[in-house]
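[Automated response] Your request has been received and processed.

Submitted sequence:
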Amino acid sequence: MALMSPDERPKGLDHPIVPRIMKLMSRANVWLYKRTGGKLGGTWRVGAAFKKGVPVLLLTAKGAKSGIERTTPLLYMKDGLRLVVVASKGGLAADPLWLGNVKANPDVTVQVGKTVERMRARVADSVERAQLWPRLVETYADFATYQAWTERVIQVVLLEPQRS
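Generated structure:
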């Protein structure tokens, strides 16, 4: 599949209703995930993930400005003891709000299935991103399309277990 440039991104994605729809879908996903321990909402099967599915975790972070905890469902990949998530926001021009929240408040809670764990979030540096990006695209090929659709560098975030 040929990647598109930002100019070739579907124009409908820039409609103001798209972020609202994404927010509503995320809330529904969080509600289902929490009530079923990830049995519902724990696998993403849209786009490139339709056949294989990609695992979903719930990231709870404190708001950078509000201080209110908010939970976001995110696709993830394991990397040893770390979990790796992508701040893609479907290739939209702006970073997702959760990224600013974890930069301001890196101590987060992560739920994978029924397991809830305190973790520390940090943005991967350029070397780490370069190493992880091909594996992330292998996990979910649409990440490459999202990167092609936006001029911003899509950030990769590492979720690392907190040391006792």
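Summary generated for your ticket: The chain has a mean pLDDT of 90. DSSP finds four helices and seven strands in the chain.
If you did not submit this request, please reply to this message.
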